[in-house]
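Supplementary Text 2. Reproducibility record for the structural model of the 270-residue chain.

All settings were left at their defaults, and a single model was retained for analysis rather than an ensemble. We include the record here because the model underlies the residue-level annotations in Supplementary Table 4.
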Amino acid sequence: MDWGRLKTIFIIAFLILDIFLLTQLMNKQKDNKLEVRTDVSLEENLHNDGIDYSGIPKNPIRDQYMSANTKVFSEKETEKLKDQFTTIVDDSIIYSKLANPVKVPDKLNVQEMEQYVRNNVLYGDQYGFGNYDEKAGTITFYQKHQDKLLFKNRSAHLVFYVEKNNEVYSYEQTMLEKIEPISEKEEVLPAIRAVEAIYRNKLLKQDSKIVRAELGYYTVVNMEASQVLTPTWHVVAEHEGEKESMLVNAFEGQIIQENTGSGKSVLEVR
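Retained model, structure tokens:
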């Protein structure tokens, strides 16, 4: 065997490998530089448009897909409710009429309303405030999982109906159960990426302020008895006293839903 020739072949092979690895490294560094430039560009654009996002979360967060089942309510459960006349529809919806109406002040006190829910609604401690829409006459709470809200989920909400005299006479309740992970935890997109998605889609007005960016869940697969939930950023932007509430998929960065407020709608009171 010609060892000299073999040695030359090995040297050439390793040289080609080194060139390949060097090329990969250079491409990676180039990509990193592009990412940094993109961030700088975004920062500059937000600054130039007068958009304040200083209060958004900055620490990395890990989360996962979840599955959940529609809860079936029983008459035995609703018997625990005092001064209420309840009806269960399709086994999964509670309609309740209150014997003693609840007065809603001109400026909703969220803490007092949350306390009322804990004391007067089944599993009330598992719901968190969502929004108060004066125009529609609804105060909506969403079910929580590990202190994260299940946004815009009709199968996991609590809706109080406010009459013209600013009193609540009834509410509707739905709920999910057996909420369990169906994937490994992975790092979600940071809140700034959610802000970027909203900004790139021209949904942020100049001189706006991001008043809230919180992580929760949104339904991506909805079947009759079960759901699949994905981590989702809920971003609230304020402009000239009006608030807009938007949802962004925290894994894919896609805008899921936009809910635009009006002068008479308080989308985020906290």
